[in-house]
Structure formats: structure tokens, C-alpha cells
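Translate structure to sequence.
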């Protein structure tokens, strides 16, 4: 199904406004900004198993609301599973300043959050990078790690061989090394950097990771979703460190909750940014990301600045 012209233009303009290194830096700046206000997001169930997400946020200058539909029934079709928009307002005047493509914001801010976590926490940032899941988030994370971490070598695993090959071709087109692998567990020993961004319907990683592993898990964002086995999660709790993106992970991190781990009190990305934590070369790190409207606000802030200088 062809994307309508106006959607294609909005997608391209949103991408240009949100370069990954600048977006990761903006996310770090937002976490240090005490004026940021992010109410709890609204999640409304939809008929057929989908969900409607309404995610507002503001600071002293920018207000935004992201309205996103998540439709699992679209998996395997030409229609995206995530659709919607981000409305950006000027706080002083109440005027609408920008309308951003919601799925593009979601993809880029999620990957930028993982990038920021890797920049601050990865014991061995040199790669190769194992990406499990070759959809929109797989591509976003590949691009983000290449742009912001300097990653050049990638291993790609996906339930869809054609999707994995397409992502590998995309990587090679941009001068990167990419290899499709069929067993992500076997690839763990070759890859100190790992990203899981699957539909989160079943565990895709079970084996013991490297001692210097950094794993960013972004696919599961409800208590019922999972992409890491309980044993995999408990390994990090017992032998390494687990960092979550926000305190809301206490109710949303399906991987950790189904592993029987006490998520409340785990360090957050805010703790990492504000307090600083020294990486330990022999201590693996699991970064569990569930999503937060603050990441969308960071994207809106950056897009506003880019638009002002255009």
C-alpha cells in the first residue's frame, strides 16, 4: 500500500528534524530540566486487541500531545502497527507550531533513548551490534547506533528472513557491515551490544550473554508482553545491572515482571544522567525501555529548534 504524499512528506520532515546524536543529547537535557511536566499517559483498549495511547507533556516553552494507535492485527500487512501524530504547541501563545509524524517520532526517540543508554552504560561500545527484530525499530536502532555510537558491524536476526535481508541491505547501502543470523542466542557471544525490538509475543533470547554485554530491550511495554526469557533477565539481576527507562517500568516491563524481579527501586535513566555511573568492563547491563511521553517532548523541543533555524 503506497503511503499518501502528505504522510511521506511529514515522515521525511520529521526525520530531518530529529538527527539521532542531537536527539540523544536533547533527551539527556530534558532529564535534567526540572520544569518538565509529564502526566501519566492514557491507554485505552480498542476493539480487536489494539490500544489508543494519548501522551501529553510540557516544559516552560513547549507543550505537546502524541496520539498513537497500536494495532497488532496489522502485523504482516502493508499497514503499520503504529500510527498517529504529535501536535506541538507554543506555551506562551497556545499556538500550534508543528505537526510531526507520530510513528517517526516514536521510532527515532525510542532508538535515541537506547543510544543514550548505550553511550552512558555500555561496558564495550565497539560492537558488533546484534539486532533482533528487523522492523521499524530495528532499522531505527541500526541507524541510531551507527550515527551516535559509531557502530559499523551488525548482526541481524528476524522471524522474517526477507525483513532481515532488507535491513542488512539498508546497512550495506550506508557503508556498514551487516550479516543475517538465524540463531540470535548463538550470536550473543560475538556481540557486546544487543538490541531486541520484536513484536514481544515470545522470548527471543535465552542464552547467557557476554560479561561485557549491553542489552537494550524495547519490544515489550506491557506486563503481558515479553521478548527476554526469565533466566536471561535474572542473569543480569544476579550477575550484572538492570536499568529501566522510567519508574513507570514498575508496571509495564513485562520481561522483568514475568521473571519475578522487583522492578520498583531499579535505577532509571534519569539516575544515570544526573548522578553518573562508571561502566564496569566485566559487568553486563540490561537496559529495559517501556516508553514515556517525556521522550516525545524531547523530540518536540529539538524539532522546534530545528524549525526555528530552517
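Result:
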Amino acid at each position: 500500500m503506497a503511503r499518501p504524499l502528505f504522510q511521506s512528506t511529514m515522515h521525511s520532515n520529521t526525520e530531518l528534524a530529529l538527527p539521532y546524536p542531537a536527539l540523544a543529547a536533547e533527551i539527556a537535557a530534558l532529564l535534567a530540566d526540572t520544569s518538565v511536566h509529564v502526566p501519566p499517559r492514557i491507554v485505552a483498549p480498542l476493539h480487536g486487541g489494539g490500544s489508543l495511547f494519548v501522551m501529553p507533556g510540557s516544559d516552560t516553552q513547549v507543550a505537546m500531545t502524541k496520539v498513537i494507535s497500536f494495532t497488532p492485527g496489522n502485523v504482516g500487512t502493508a499497514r503499520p502497527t503504529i500510527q498517529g501524530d504529535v501536535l506541538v504547541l507554543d506555551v506562551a501563545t497556545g499556538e500550534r507550531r508543528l505537526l510531526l509524524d507520530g510513528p517517526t517520532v516514536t521510532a527515532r526517540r525510542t532508538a535515541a533513548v537506547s543510544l543514550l543508554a548505550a553511550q552512558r552504560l555500555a561496558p564495550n561500545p565497539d560492537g558488533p551490534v546484534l539486532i533482533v527484530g528487523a522492523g521499524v525499530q530495528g532499522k531505527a536502532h541500526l541507524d541510531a547506533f551507527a550515527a551516535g555510537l559509531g557502530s559499523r558491524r551488525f548482526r541481524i536476526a528476524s522471524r522474517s528472513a526477507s525483513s532481515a535481508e532488507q535491513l542488512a541491505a539498508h546497512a550495506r547501502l550506508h557503508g556498514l557491515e551487516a550479516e543475517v543470523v538465524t540463531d540470535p542466542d548463538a550470536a550473543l557471544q560475538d556481540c557486546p551490544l544487543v538490541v531486541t525490538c520484536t513484536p514481544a509475543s515470545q522470548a527471543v533470547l535465552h542464552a547467557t550473554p557476554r560479561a561485557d554485554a549491553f542489552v537494550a530491550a524495547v519490544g515489550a511495554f506491557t506486563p503481558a508482553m515479553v521478548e527476554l526469557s526469565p533466566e536471561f533477565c535474572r542473569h543480569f539481576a544476579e550477575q550484572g545491572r538492570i536499568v529501566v527507562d522510567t519508574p513507570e517500568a514498575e508496571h509495564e516491563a513485562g520481561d522483568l515482571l514475568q521473571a519475578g524481579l522487583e522492578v520498583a527501586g531499579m535505577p532509571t535513566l534519569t539516575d544515570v544522567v544526573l548522578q553518573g555511573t562508571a561502566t564496569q568492563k566485566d559487568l553486563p547491563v540490561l537496559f529495559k525501555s517501556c516508553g514515556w511521553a517525556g521522550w516525545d517532548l524531547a523530540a518536540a523541543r529539538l524539532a522546534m529548534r530545528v524549525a526555528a533555524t530552517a
